[in-house]
Amino acid sequence: MNKKRKAGKERRRDRLSRLPEPIIHHILSFLATRSAVQTSVLSRSWRSAWKHVPVLDFSQHSFQRYSSFHRYVGNVLSLRYPLNLRKVKFADGERRSDGRDDSLVIRVIQYALSHDARHLVIDNANDVISPDIYRFSDLFGSATSSSNCNLETLELEGFEIDSGFGSPGFRMLTSLDLWTCLVACGEEEVLEPFSNFPCLKHLSLRDLINDHPGLMKIHGLELLSLKLHTVKFYRIEIDAPKLKFFGIWDDVEWLYYSNLSLPSLDHADIGLHGKLRFDEEDKECVALQLINLFRGLQNAKSLNLYRDTTIPVTTLVTASCIHK
Fold this sequence. Notes:
Protein name: F-box domain-containing protein
Strand content: 25-35%
Largest sheet: 13 strands, mixed
Order of helices and strands: HHHEHEHEEHEEEEEEEEEEEHEEH
Domain F-box: 13-66
CATH class of the largest domain: Alpha Beta
Organism: Linum tenue
CATH topology of the largest domain: Leucine-rich repeat, LRR (right-handed beta-alpha superhelix)
Number of helices: 8
Shape: elongated
Pfam families: F-box (PF00646)
Structural class: alpha/beta
InterPro entries: F-box-like_dom_sf, F-box_AtFBL13-like, F-box_dom, F-box_SCFL_complex_component, LRR_dom_sf
Radius of gyration: 24 Å
Helix content: 10-25%
C-alpha cells in the first residue's frame, strides 16, 4: 500500500513528464542549445527532447576552448532528429589562435539549409578589418546553389560581402540584416548587392563600410522597410516603389544620397550626428547632401528628425513641409 501511495505521489509530482511533446519542444527552443541539453535531465521523458527542438543556438562564449566547442556542435548536429528545424543561430568567438577555421561554420550553414531552416543568424565576433572576417562566397557559395534553399530571414555580422552575395539560392528571402560588414568593391565600382532578392521586404544595414569609393544601388520591388545605420559609401541610390518606412542614422558628413525613388513612403526617421560647424566649402557640400536627401523624401506623410538623441527635435507631418 505504501508503495502505491509513493508511486502516486511521484506521478503527481512529475508534472513535467506529462506535458505534451510540442510544448516541451517549444519551451526548450527559448534556451541556448547547450542549456536545452542540460535541462533535459529534469525529467525522464525529456532525455531526448532536445533532439527535436526546432531551434539550434550555438555560442562559443560558453566554452573555454574552441576545440571543445567544435566537437560539441558536431555531436549535436550528428545526434539531432533531422526534421522540424526552424531557426539556427551560430555565434563564433574572437580568436583563431586556438585553431579556429571556417569548417565548423560551413557545416552549420550547410546543415541549416539542407534541413529546410527558415531563419539563420551567423555572428562573427571579429573586427571587420581583421584577417578573421568571414567571406560570404566561401561560406555560402556551394550551400546556396541548391534550389531547395527556403531561408526567409538572414542575419550576418562580421562578413565580407563580395561578388557571390545574393546568389539565386536566396530567392525566398524576405528579411536581411547586415551588421559590421565590409563590402568588397573596386575603384568607382557600381554595386547592386541586393538585386537577387526578389521577395525582400525588410532590409537593415548597420556599420557597413567599403574598401574603395563606389556607388551602391538599392533596388527592391517588394521592399517595405529600409534601415541604414552608419553606411559609409561614396553615393547611395534607392529605388523602392512600395517602401513604407525609411530610417537613416548617420554622420551628417556621410549623407551621400541621390536619385531616391520612394513614391509610397509613409514615414521616415532621420538621425544625424557629428560636428555642426564647417568651413565654407564643406558647408556647401553638406547643404547639398541634405537637399538631395530631403528631395527624395518628398512623398513621406510624416518625418522625424533627430540630432544626437532618440528624441525627435523636429516632426514633419505632411509632405508639403518637406517641400518648404
